[in-house]
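A.,

Following up on our hallway conversation. Structure tokens first:
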């Protein structure tokens, strides 16, 4: 039995994308990095402790965390036993599926009738660029929850775009569900609601809808899901958040807080192309987060987005860009630059790269003198060089940094209290 050509054409990009994702995320998964970090050990302790008590939306263990992701780690432990593999498996799984969801989001964003072969392949090209950025796949290879948060944000955004496209109410409910789950994840997820909500409100101006009813489909599931954590945080302080949130420091002068903000702004802007994160778990110390090729296309696309600010998707991704950077601007300067805390800026970075590709493929001079197939080959070759550079930086150079950045040398179980292991 042979598959129809349309079916092959539809699923071939997803198969290609999943194959590339599987390679960069799973290649030498347990040997790079080979050791574990004490943060991961604390995460394991937190997850196991959750199995001994009734449901709690927040735990003071491991410096304080919302617990949603750690219940997933607990499930992984129950299925596969307590091991480094089981601890890191959830991050890997979400790391594999994020590019597939992002590809479908980009298909909706770049949904105009293709004017060139480059334009038609933009969603696939951008998704491949996304998954081969070491800023992305590095965090899919150990047990932090960055890829889980991005999965929730992507899912919420996909269903919101699907609602706007189809006018159906069920995707709207699902968008609210995933936005609510994002609130229960890593701290930046608590302000993510502004992203799909902005899209929804914008849609009110271009289509007729019962606005109160439409908003309720989105907001009711969102508020129901954030209620337990919100009640907890209203009674108990989020220890982790307020330890890092310098505006809440009443012993600091306003002028000093202003100086901190300027320092954070400078280091955060510089993270892209000047000086990157110094943390060896996040980055090859001090190396810019974007290589020269990615950095050039990102910067040019950002300028295009600002220049064409009336475009709704330019507005949307600029807002997502700013919201993703906001948390790091209000943490103490010695915490920055930080590629983990700014992880959710990646979709906007990739979108701006896409604007650059579109601009190049559409300008008259290129159309006149360079055939589109030749341009496509040139773009593929250029970003292939970028991909090789990213993979080499990670698997050759950053690998050596991991020897010190991941401090714990012994087996994961040896760091856990015996009573926890026995009860498990």
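Then the amino acids I'd put at each of the 424 positions:
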């Amino acid at each position: 039995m042979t598959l129809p050509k349309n079916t092959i054409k539809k699923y071939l990009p997803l198969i290609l994308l999943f194959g590339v994702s599987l390679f960069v995320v799973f290649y030498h998964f347990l040997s790079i990095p080979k050791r574990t970090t004490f943060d991961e050990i604390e995460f394991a302790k937190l997850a196991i402790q959750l199995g001994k008590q009734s449901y709690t939306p927040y735990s003071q263990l491991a410096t304080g965390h919302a617990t949603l992701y750690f219940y997933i780690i607990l499930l992984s432990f129950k299925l596969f036993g307590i091991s480094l593999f089981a601890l890191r498996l959830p991050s890997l799984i979400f790391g594999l599926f994020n590019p597939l969801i992002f590809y479908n989001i980009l298909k909706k964003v770049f949904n105009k009738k293709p004017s060139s072969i480059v334009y038609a392949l933009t969603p696939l090209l951008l998704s491949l660029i996304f998954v081969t950025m070491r800023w992305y796949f590095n965090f899919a290879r150990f047990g932090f929850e960055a890829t889980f948060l991005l999965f929730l944000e992507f899912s919420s955004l996909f269903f919101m775009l699907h609602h706007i496209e189809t006018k159906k109410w069920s995707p709207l409910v699902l968008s609210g569900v995933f936005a609510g789950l994002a609130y229960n994840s890593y701290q930046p997820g608590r302000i993510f609601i502004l992203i799909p909500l902005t899209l929804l409100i914008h849609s009110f101006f271009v289509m007729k809808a019962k606005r109160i009813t439409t908003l309720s489909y989105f907001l009711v599931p969102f508020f129901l899901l954030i209620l337990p954590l919100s009640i907890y945080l209203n009674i108990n302080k989020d220890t982790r958040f307020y330890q890092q949130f310098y505006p809440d420091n009443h012993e600091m002068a306003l002028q000093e807080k202003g100086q901190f903000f300027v320092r954070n702004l400078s280091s955060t802007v510089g993270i892209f192309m000047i000086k990157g994160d110094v943390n060896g778990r996040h980055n090859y110390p001090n190396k810019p987060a974007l290589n020269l090729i990615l950095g050039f296309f990102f910067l040019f696309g950002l300028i295009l987005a600002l220049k064409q600010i009336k475009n709704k998707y330019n507005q949307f991704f600029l807002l997502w860009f700013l919201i993703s950077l906001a948390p790091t601007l209000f943490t103490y300067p010695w915490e920055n630059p930080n590629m983990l805390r700014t992880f959710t800026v990646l979709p906007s970075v990739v979108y701006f790269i896409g604007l650059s590709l579109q601009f190049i493929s559409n300008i008259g001079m290129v159309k006149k003198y360079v055939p589109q197939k030749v341009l496509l080959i040139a773009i593929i070759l250029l970003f292939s060089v970028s991909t090789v550079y990213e993979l080499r930086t990670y698997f050759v150079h950053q690998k050596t940094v991991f020897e010190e950045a991941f401090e714990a040398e012994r087996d994961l179980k040896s760091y856990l209290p015996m009573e926890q292991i026995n009860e498990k």
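Residues 31-420 form one domain. Curious whether your intuition agrees with the design.

B.
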